[in-house]
Inverse folding.
């Protein structure tokens, strides 16, 4: 190549490249798209920060209120069901304990009756032995026979009376303790039933007050609780 041709080639390489029509259109489209995207992002950001976005319409507030009322109703029904189940369990346990006490009382009475029968049989046996011995001695002296029989009868009667008195005292004391235990169990069951009912009434009352606060002022259930707490302090 000649020196003139080399100079021309170098000049073409050094000269800036002129943009084509497609480059211009592409650059303008990119600029417009960026502007639209920025405007859309700014509009969405403003909508998210707008206080109107957090404001609920009356129908939505009513739906929220009805939903909360339904949830509160279900909760109250569940609590009432649990309370009734606890009362039934307590009553069943009380009846079971009462039946056990009655069965034990019958068993103890049978045991005492059996002891009395054995004591009576032993008394009759010993009395017969003493009478036989007294009869042998009485064959010698009639006066001694009568005295021995009289003393033996008095002794046996005294022992029998003392035994019966002790058994009756023990039975009376045992029955008294069983009665105290049964009354204590019934009292505990009644107190538990009263406490459960009082808790259910308090929770139902608070639920109604919170529902009224939500219906009156709107907002969530937590906001209703805050308003109710503020009103109670004032």
């Amino acid at each position: 190549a000649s020196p003139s041709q080399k100079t021309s080639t170098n000049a073409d390489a050094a000269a800036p490249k002129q943009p084509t029509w497609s480059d211009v259109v592409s650059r303008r489209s990119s600029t417009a798209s960026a502007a639209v995207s920025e405007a859309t992002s700014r509009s969405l950001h403003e909508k998210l920060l707008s206080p109107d976005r957090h404001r609920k319409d009356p129908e939505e507030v009513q739906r929220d209120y009805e939903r909360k009322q339904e949830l509160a109703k279900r909760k109250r029904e569940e609590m009432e069901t649990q309370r009734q189940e606890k009362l039934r369990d307590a009553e069943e346990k009380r009846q079971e304990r009462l039946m056990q006490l009655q069965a034990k009382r019958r068993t103890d009475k049978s045991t005492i009756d059996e002891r009395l029968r054995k004591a009576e049989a032993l008394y009759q046996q010993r009395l017969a032995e003493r009478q036989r011995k007294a009869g042998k001695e009485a064959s010698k002296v009639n006066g001694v026979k009568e005295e021995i029989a009289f003393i033996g009868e008095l002794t046996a009667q005294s022992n029998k009376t003392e035994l019966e008195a002790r058994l009756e005292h023990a039975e009376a004391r045992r029955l008294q303790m069983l009665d105290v235990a049964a009354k204590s169990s019934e009292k505990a069951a009644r107190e538990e039933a009263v406490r459960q009912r009082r808790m259910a009434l308090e929770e139902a009352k608070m639920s109604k007050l919170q529902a009224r606060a939500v219906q009156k002022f709107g907002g969530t259930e937590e906001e209703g609780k805050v308003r109710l707490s503020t009103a109670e302090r004032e």
